[in-house]
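Hello,

Following up on my earlier ticket. Below are the two sequence lines again, exactly as submitted.
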Amino acid sequence: MDLILFYFRKLLTILKNEVLVLPYRIAVLLFFFILLFLPLWMEDPYLLRILTLTSIFAILAASWDLLSGFTGQMNFGHALFFGVGAYGAALLNKYAGIPPWGTIPLGALTAVLAGLIIGIPCLRLRGTYLALTTLAFPIILLGLVFALPGLTGGELGISGITRLAKSRITSYYIAVVVMLGLCTTMWKITDSKTGIIFHAIREDELAVRASGINTTRYKLLAFSLSGFFAGISGGLYAHFMRVAGPSTLEVSLSFQVVIWAVFGGIATIYGPVGGVFLLFPLMEVLRFWQDYRILMFACIVLFTLLYMPDGLFRWLREKTEKECPRCKIRNVAFRDACRICTAPLD
Amino acid sequence: MERWKKGMFMLAIIFLFFMSNVTLSFGQDVIKIGVIGPMKFVQGIGHWNGATMAAEEINAKGGIQVGSKKMKVELVQADSNEFLSIPDATTAIERLITRDKVHYIVGGFRTEAVLAMQDIAMEHKKIFIGVGAAHDELCLRVARDYKTYKYWFRGSPFNSSFLGRTSFIHLGTVGAILKGSLNIPKVKVAITAEKAEWTEPMIKAAETAIPGMGMETVGIWRPSAVATDVTAELSAIQRSEAHIIFTIFSASVGIPFARQAGELKIPAVQVGINVEAQKDGFWQATRGMGNYVATMNTYARGVESNELTKAFVDTYVKRFGETPTYTADTYAAIIYGLAPTIEQAGTLDADKIVSLLEERVYKTPSGTVKYMKDAQGRHLHELTWGPGYLTALGVQWQDGELKGFWPNKWKVAPEAPEITYKGMVPYKIPPWMIEKYKK
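Thanks for your patience. The regenerated structure is below:
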């Protein structure tokens, strides 16, 4: 009992001294809280569908950020990982009868394999050349899908696969919990030693190599990790929609991911997640003006990026928080002195 | 203070405006029908136009008699955006069902999207009449899992197997005309299909069917679905000495192919499927070079499959300025499918309507609808194809007008009666072809 009380007190202390002191951390806490408790007072299947799909795409956008935002490996064909995960899960479910809890991770492992297959030939490429090469891979796979209609269902895709869960609420919780878990994992990775190396590769690969770090290994690791997380989202999508079709590999999806991530703010993880949680439901809100829906969406994205080129959530964070010039600890913007070292904040 | 008052006044007006709309929607007994389709594209526009005509006609007569009361029809439009995003299509149908609370749904076009939308409608036990997607799988699901999928019905067109069969009949008909008129001993056919997966089974079937009809396949050409220049393919076809080009086109390649074949005066007639040639704008798009191109179609001005066709086509043309395409069959799905069945059932209950609708045989402007069962006697909710039911049309561009040429004295079997739809004209062979082959 004492131990429980000790941990409870510790939790309260962390909440008081670490979380509730910064608007950004309060927002993340609220985000977790709202997503986890929303179905308790809102069971609208339409809203739950939107949030389930949003959660699935949030994993996809965050996984793109891990590879392209942090490591700087500009991937314009991220739909490949998503599609491989979706098709992998669908094929395993349809032909081997494996349930979703088995097909989703196995599909993700197939996406890891795809990540390695792409990563190895792309190691020597950078910038525009890498972007164009990665763009080609989902198109090649799309060709394969159409060439093997007996296996992949061709244009029709693979349909009639097992539902993610029997009820909408369960599907919602699976997607949300997996999303929160995976995005936290991705954030932890980027905050670790590996994450610092990812950052360094993006900034100056030559310098990293000169420091004795095997950048090839880290770049392949980034491709594989990104492929794994995107593959999970593809598997979740296939089982939620009950269809894994050519649309999961379309170029438009690859660009959509880039738009979400850039809108939210790249190299942050929380930015792409926030970007999806704003833009995906926004398209639904804009249904009231059906004829100009896409135009309005484009205008909103354009104007946001015009005034907030680093992304909306980075901009918001910059406006609400200040970094201490001495100890580098972040403080709420209205503070005059640092909450840790009391150095004056300008 | 003045600004505050003005603000409050504006707010009050906005509130009243919204309340008046809410009252209109919820204050009356209405049957809500969701119309879902790619509304920015010609297919979705057809969905909406057809449904609008049906709702107006029903409401002009006071509505649908449901038990002791008349209920008007209210349409709810949903842009599925299905060509660009499948998730968008699924959220659109979910919104129709859970937010707009529609009673029934019509529409859908892209098969991959319709499969996903079908699952959602079935989950909510909503009747969904598909008007656009032709894949067999949509109806096979009804037979495999009737309890879940019984709320799905095919409205238009008939399935892709029947589409293939009809185009082979057109090919055989034109082949026989060429053989008879030009004394060609063995008609040669060039199969030309756009590079798309849906054409694969049709190519395979054509390779088997063509020799069976006493003709010869001289080659298969696969231009890109979005090709803008097909002179290489046309030159090769000309060298192969083909008499017929059996086209399998749904995309924009149908226009340059027809235009360049006309410009080069290729001595071979085009017959099969060319979706671009079904549209009124084809003549202008090909600058008249698409003359004599033949394709399968559902409607043509002046052609009557039955007594309902003329009124529908004429009203549609008058109202929307173009000939209806098959996605405008939302009209038939609502006015001849749903409305009389609701009246017969005397209730809006989906289960009762399903049990009545699957047994009904009723006329629509494109033919008679009867829902099929499979070989084991299980309900498919699939449209019956054939004489007396739905057959589609063979149409040909003749001097700027799309004319019907099939069925014209069509006999399913030697002893069967001849079938001719009103307004049919003889098939015309291009003069440059007559010049080349007439001896």
